[in-house]
Design goal:
alpha/beta; 6-stranded parallel sheet; 15 helices; globular; binds NADP nicotinamide-adenine-dinucleotide phosphate
Length: about 425
């Protein structure tokens, strides 16, 4: 028997568990460990609440979780309840699928003023992550600036722009639904330090902005290169840029506007004890396509700044780490010493949910090859259980999660699939129901 521990129950974790099952069949036992009492990581806490079709991928992970040789071990914090070296001692292989939950900081003067919020915190707030429930973003202001031109910036801008009616069918948590319903924000600036051709927004997600009930996107056509240059773009990117060009002809006849500022590099956040304005330097592209400042600056009046400039994996003591890329040092998923990495912990924060699938399969193949001549010497889950019990850890099983899930569905407001528990104690309490 081979014993594998996967740390993290998000897409990368469950795709790895699925791949291990396929590779090793009944010869493997997989424990998927998560610090939360609830599974699915990014699917629950990252994917936007109004993108339920994307969240539906969790049904695939559920099938894996319910199989006999895979176990969910929730409410177990690696580093506190059990250490990585202990796991390496207990399991034949340990896969780090810890994602990239930390914001890259906005390293400019005033970047720490109250009212500057990282996207991990903001997204976690509207998705009911226990750590960010008390964030209280300042929504009593007329304008917000969203920094970044990726899909997370799009998510944040869209959530700020939507009406209560547009959240029907979503699982946005009650505290965010209420606060957004009372929001005074009428202008949402989306800032890219480069131009329309350099956006990292996918067409479907960008296209949504053109169909909002009470908000209209605005772009300045002067920011675009000649139309003929669009032909040089890769087809997906061309589609996104076409959406942007279409936005230029939309009438600004709705209560809210989403203003795209291109060639706009934030250089300072200013205000008396809180965000009042963002100072931006105009840029141009150099020959390598990088943004260089022109020295010309302007101010955007806003009471909130949400930085959507990428994420990083939190380092784990003793595990080699690449600071500049915000991920574990690895060679195609292999860290060494029985440790492997998948997903954003392996690649850094890029790609869609599906990108994690080949990642998991590749690492499972490597583990199967590495364990071909060993195995059977490690204790696996029996050893983990003994350790956790001796430390008084309240392990949450997948059956427990199913009770929590049923309780969340039972208390959902009309039109919503669930009302998530936000406090860990409430999640734990719901197991008894
Ligand atoms: P991303 O796609 O890497 O975009 C980050 C953006 O931040 C880029 O526009 C980047 O500009 C900008 N940026 C970085 N540092 C900056 C700085 N110091 N100042 C100003 N701008 C800065 O990252 P993301 O939006 O966080 O998304 C992460 C991954 O999740 C992506 O693969 C994304 O597609 C995926 N995702 C997908 C969905 C979906 O499919 N619905 C939703 C959310 C996220 P430069 O290009 O100039 O570096």
């Amino acid at each position: 028997m081979r014993h594998v521990a996967v740390i993290g129950s998000g897409p990368a974790g469950y795709y790895s568990a699925e791949a291990l099952q396929k590779q090793l069949g009944d010869e493997v036992r997989v424990d998927v460990i998560d610090r939360m009492p609830v599974p699915y990581g990014l699917i629950r806490f990252g994917v936007a609440p109004d993108h339920q079709s994307i969240k539906a991928v969790s049904r695939r992970y559920e099938k894996v979780a319910l199989s006999d040789n895979v176990r969910f071990c929730g409410n177990v914090l690696v580093g506190r309840d059990v250490t990585v070296p202990e796991l390496v001692g207990l399991y034949d292989a340990v896969i780090l699928a810890t994602g990239a939950p930390d914001d890259r900081p906005l390293d400019i003067p005033g970047g720490d003023l109250p009212g500057v919020v990282g996207s991990a915190a903001f997204v976690g707030w509207y998705n009911g992550h226990p750590e960010f429930a008390a964030l209280g973003p300042p929504l009593d202001v007329a304008a917000a600036a969203v920094i970044g031109n990726g899909n997370v910036a799009l998510d944040v801008a869209r959530i700020l722009a939507k009406t209560a009616h547009e959240f029907v069918g979503s699982d946005i948590v009650a505290h965010a639904f209420g606060a957004l319903g009372n929001s005074a924000i009428r202008t949402i600036h989306v800032l890219g330090r480069r131009g329309p051709h350099q956006i990292a927004m996918t067409p479907k997600e960008l296209g949504e902005l053109g169909h909002l009930e009470d908000a209209v996107p605005r772009v300045e056509i002067e920011d675009f290169p000649p139309l003929l240059d669009d032909a040089l773009l890769e087809p997906g990117q061309r589609k996104s840029v076409t959406h942007l060009r279409e936005f230029a002809s939309l009438k600004a006849d709705k209560a809210k506007t989403i203003e795209f500022d291109f060639f706009a590099k934030p250089v300072a956040v200013e205000g008396e004890g809180k965000v009042e304005r963002l100072i931006v330097e105009k840029t141009r592209l150099d020959e390598r396509g990088a943004a260089v400042g022109t020295g010309e600056t302007y101010a955007i009046d806003c009471g909130m700044v949400v930085t959507c400039i990428g994420y990083k994996t939190p380092p784990i003591k003793g595990v080699p780490y690449e600071e500049d890329r915000g991920r574990f040092a690895n060679a195609e998923g292999v860290i060494g010493g029985g440790l492997y990495a998948v997903g954003w912990a392996r690649r850094g924060p890029s790609g869609t949910i599906g990108t994690n699938r080949p990642d998991g399969y590749e690492v499972a193949e490597k583990i199967a090859a590495d364990l071909a001549s060993v195995g059977g010497r490690k204790e696996g889950r029996a050893g983990l259980d003994r350790l956790l019990e001796s430390r008084g850890v309240d392990l949450v099983t997948f059956r427990d999660w199913q009770k929590i899930e049923a309780a969340e569905a039972a208390r959902a407001r009309e039109g919503s699939p669930r009302e998530k528990f936000v406090a860990i104690e409430d999640m734990l309490g719901a197991r008894k129901g």
